[in-house]
Amino acid sequence: MIKYIFKRFLYAIPILIGVNLLTFTLFFVVNSPDEVARLHLGNKRVTPEQIQSWNEERGYNNPLFYNQSEKGIKSFTKTIFYQKSFKLFIFEFGISDSGRDIKYDIKQRMWPSLAIALPSLLVGLLLNITFALFFVFFRSTYIDYVGVIFCVGLMSISSLFYIIGGQYLISKLLHLVPISGYAHGFEAIKFLVLPVIISVIYGIGSGTRWYRSLFLEEIEKDYVKTARSKGLSEFSVLFNHVFKNALIPILTGVVVILPLLFLGSLIVESFFGIPGLGSYTIDAIQSQDFAIVRAMVFLGTILYIFGLILTDISYTLVDPRVRLK
Question: Helices 2-24 and 290-318, interaxial angle, to 10°?
Fold first, then answer.
């Protein structure tokens, strides 16, 4: 098993390097540092001296990959690639274009994002699987048909409707929770209840339908027919056989959501005024602070690869055949 996990880590290295190089190319080759400086300073009436000064303050005045004016190792270290891209591998995110410490901001903003995403994931996963098993138990009946129609209806509605509708009904009319904002400690709960509820409701339609399709695919297989022929009840077949054998695709679906646990939800955090990493990224895009955007892209890649490795490890726990590969 250790060999299997080690191989997965080796596979992740070239992926991470490739994403880092692609991100660097998009931000510094397609858009040169001078063009970025013009965006911040204003395209009109910007002098070359202002552009040079802006680049020097932020370390964008060095060559991209190789510095001919330096000797030895400094020829590679005193470059934009090393300062702005290579250092990301050791989680040195540097200073944003607006002068903020990116690493400090990430440490502060990760907790509000986790406070929303973690309960949303756990509650949503529990409800989606429960509803899916319930519909499969009553498959080909009116309960199943109505449930599928209800899920499609939920999927057809924009997330903005749930956000605005929830704020109007629960916050403005009923005054149960604040409409937006955030506080630290236990005071944060009243600000997180509504975003979590809306996140769960928005994901029920698609999640339930997807898990339902997984369970329906498993329930037609030969091992299920064998279990029924031995006299097992339908309830026992669903939970002891179908659910267990559907764990691998379930785990695969969960890994896609893992980066969001840390990076937060862009829309939800922005509408509810939650100072998480989602709103942090949106603010950086709006202010064209590409240093923050680069850091968040790299961080998202790290989390996604880490999630894939965790998924591979979990495969070995639910399916022993994987360990032999």
Answer: 160
Residue 276, classified by CB atoms within 10 Å of its CB into exposed (0-12), middle (13-18) or buried (19+), is buried
> Interior CA angle at 222 toward 136 and 142, to 5°?
20
Separation between Cα atoms, residue 107 and residue 182, nearest integer Å = 16
Domain with CATH 1.10.3720.10 in the chain: 102-324
Alpha helices in the chain (DSSP H): 2-24, 33-41, 48-58, 74-77, 80-84, 102-137, 142-156, 159-166, 189-219, 222-229, 234-237, 243-245, 247-263, 266-272, 277-286, 290-318
Q: What is the secondary structure of 35-49 as a DSSP string?
A: HHHHHHH-SSS--HH
* pTM attached to this predicted model: 0.78
What Cα–Cα distance (Å) separates residue 258 from each residue in 83, 305, 306?
28, 10, 9
What average pLDDT does the structure give for the chain?
82
Backbone angles phi, psi at 265, to 5 degrees: -100, 120
Sign for the pseudo-dihedral over CA of 139, 143, 149, 154: negative
Q: Coil, strand, or helix at residue 302?
A: helix
**Tokens at residue 268, please?**
């939800």
pLDDT at 149: 92
The CATH code that applies to domain 102-324 is 1.10.3720.10
Q: What are phi and psi of 101, to 5 degrees?
A: -80, 110
CB of 168 within 8 A of CB of 245? no
Higher pLDDT, 9 or 262: 9
